[in-house]
Amino acid sequence: MTIKILAFAGSARTDSFNKKLVKIAADGARAAGAEVTYVDFKDLPMPLYDEDLEAAEGLPKTVIQFKALLKEHQGFLIASPEYNSSISPLLKNAIDWASRPAPDEAPLACFRDKVAVLMAASPGGLGGLRGLIHVRSILQNIGVLVLPDQKAISNAYQAFDQTGNLKDEKQRTDIYNLGSKLAVIATKLTN
Ligand code: FNR
């Protein structure tokens, strides 16, 4: 069975470093035999989670679309920006919405028994490493197996070239290999 991996960044910004980063990992996952779908949150705008809104209107259409994508894929490649030492509100909001069950849906059906790999890029010196601690904790608590391998790219304004690739060969290989590793492990766990 070909493993299916969903790749996304916790930023909607057009020139997002994290979008560039996760696309490199996606290439690594494809090279290892995975079928990778990239989704951009700019194309899936979700309102800020509000329990009154959910009670009145149910899940928004974009949330239903995102949930369907999560359920269709066995693995997730996630690049998360760090906001004030933590997860970006965009990513947390998407996770919160996706954690809400539709009627007759098993709890946390989008997350349980999925496998994920995390990465981050930031203009700062730590590359978003502190935010990944929180992303990892959130995902593990909702049933995702988050692989120990992760990578944070610091000084992001200098790190990427015009085409969106990482200039440094070792960094590029490390991120590419993160994607390959997810594909290999998810395949072993699923088949
Ligand atoms: C940031 N940024 C930031 N960077 C960092 O390394 N540690 C931090 O705690 C924060 N905090 C933070 C808060 C807020 C509200 C913003 C808007 C930004 C900078 C952040 O890393 C930078 O904007 C990245 O470019 C965001 O990621 P994308 O959009 O390039 O993927």
Give an overview in words:
The chain has 191 residues and is of the alpha/beta class. Helices cover 43% and strands 19% of the residues. Strands 2-1-3-6-7 form a five-stranded parallel beta sheet, sandwiched between helices. It has a two-stranded antiparallel ribbon with strand order 4-5. The longest helix is centred in the last third of the chain and has 22 residues. The radius of gyration is 16 Å and the shape is globular. The N and C termini lie close together (7 Å). The model has no long low-confidence stretch (mean pLDDT 97). Ligand FNR binds next to helix 1 and strand 4.
Looking at the structure, what is the overall shape? globular
> Going across the major beta sheet, what is the strand order?
2-1-3-6-7
Tell me the β content: 15-25%
Total strands: 7
Q: Return the average pLDDT rounded to an integer.
A: 97
Q: Could you spell the SSE succession in H and E letters?
A: EHEHHEEEHEHEHH
| Radius of gyration over all CA atoms, rounded | 16 Å
Q: What percent of residues adopt helix (DSSP H or I)?
A: 40-55%
Distance N terminus to C terminus? 7 Å
Small molecules held by this entry: ligand FNR
Supply database-style keywords:
alpha/beta, binds ligand FNR, two-stranded antiparallel sheet, 19% strand, 191 residues, 7 strands, five-stranded parallel beta sheet, 7 helices
